[in-house]
Amino acid sequence: MHLRGIWVLPLAAIFAFAVTRLTPGSSLCEACRRDVHHNSRTVAAIDGRSQTFCCPSCALAKGRQRGVPVRFLEMTDFDSGLPLPPARAFLVRGSDLATCRNEHTPVDETGHKPALVYDRCSPSLPAFSTKERAEGFVRSHGGAIFRLESSQPAL
Fold first, then answer.
1. Which is more confidently placed, 99 or 36?
2. CA 85 distance to own-chain centroid
3. Residue 41 to residue 100: CA distance in whole angstroms
4. Which helix (H) or strand (E) holds 66?
5. Domain residue spans of the chain
């Protein structure tokens, strides 16, 4: 057996993992350390510092955890993946969407998944550029539409 061939697959896997973590535009959420999704990326100022989050819920959770206000700087239109000014966003709260939820939840001794007690990415808060698109999402996934009244929404 040729020893060099043994290392090809593990090295290729390590290289592929490293490339996805170092590729521009590929980043991890400042709060939950999950991948930032193209359709829910959120930029918010917390403690006077601009930070990138996988979703608005993570930004709000980090603000609550630190006891400081959150000022949204940029959201992402859920349908198009394009940047969206927070003042123009129509957000949906209470839908069945779980963008960030890890589907590889461990199972307990009975073989069942434990109940989700807390996930900083929940509830999901997808943002839309138009009220019509938000209404279409609500028809399919439930929830209620709201607008940000200020830089510190009471969610």
1. 36
2. 17
3. 11
4. helix 56-66
5. 26-146
Which residue is listed with tokens 């959201």? 75
How does DSSP classify residue 37? P
* Residue 73, C-beta contacts closer than 8 angstroms, at least 6 positions apart: 43, 44, 45, 50, 86
Helices and strands counted in the chain (H then E): 4, 7
Query: Which two tokens mark 114?
Result: 């434990």
d(CA 50, CA 113): 36
CA nearest to 39, candidates 97, 85, 99: 99
Radius of gyration, CA atoms only, the chain? 19
Q: Which residues pair with 93 in a beta bridge?
A: 144
In the structure, what pLDDT confidence band is assigned to residue 122 with cuts at 50, 70 and 90? low
pLDDT tens-digit series, residues 39-91: 889 999 998 899 999 889 889 989 998 999 999 999 999 999 999 999 999 99
What pLDDT was estimated at residue 17? 43
Count of beta carbons in the 10 Å neighbourhood of residue 146: 16
pTM: 0.68
Task: Render pLDDT for 62-74 as a digit per residue (tens, 0 to 9).
Answer: 999 899 999 999 9
Identify the residue whose tokens are 């060099």.
Answer: 4
Please say whether the beta carbons of 55 and 68 come within 8 A: no
